[in-house]
Amino acid sequence: MSGHQALVDEAFAAFDGIDVLVNNAGISVARRGDMLEATPESFDRLIAINLRGPFFLTQAVARRWLREAPAPARSIVNIASANAHMASVDRAEYCLSKTGVAMMTKLYALRLAEAGIAVFEIRPGVIRTDMTAVVSASYEKRIAEGLTPVRRWGEPEDVGRAVVALTSGDFQFSTGEIVHVDGGLHIARL
């Protein structure tokens, strides 16, 4: 039995079933730098944690749900990143892993729609977490200078509120949607 399947079985047993899966796996590169110096080890680590893990965990949950009677409001939310569409050459392998999560969202949305299982993607921007702490001074300055139209850090709670909204069951005719939680970072400006 795979680790993913064992985890799913334990979660279903502990909570008498589950109706929501949030794939929030995410690490960044160990060291930012020129993409021409990225190592296979760094690449493999990012892909394994940020993409492979969520893909197979989703597969295990989806298989379980498809064997059971349909239930209202079952949903999957994948936490990707603004870097799913905004290139950052100093952490290329991170961008590639999160772009993979974006495609994974589309693929699972198509596969599970007929079963009434919605799949969504959230693309956080600059969120104040341990992962951004190492570059916080740089982001403080850039935010103050207008990096985002909403001139503040995003907080984990901003992402959490988006997850709650998407998993509420209120979007029953939606799947495969992208929700940007980035203060407007994704909006092209002149």
Portion in helices: 40-55%
Cα(first) to Cα(last) distance is 53 Å
Structural class: alpha/beta
Approximate strand percentage:
5-15%
Number of helices: 6
The radius of gyration computed from the alpha-carbon positions, rounded to a whole number of angstroms, is 17 Å
The largest pleated sheet is described as: 4 strands, parallel
Strand order of the largest sheet: 1-2-3-4
Mean pLDDT: 94
Shape: globular
Which blocks of ≥5 consecutive residues have pLDDT under 50? none
Give the ordered list of helices and strands. HEHEHEHHHE
Number of strand segments = 4
State the main characteristics.
single chain, 190 residues, alpha/beta, 4 strands, globular
Mind explaining what this structure looks like?
The protein is globular and about 50 Å long. The protein is built from six helices and four strands, in the order H-E-H-E-H-E-H-H-H-E. Helix 2 packs parallel to helix 3. The protein starts with a helix and ends in a 9-residue tail after the last strand. With 190 residues, the protein is of the alpha/beta class.
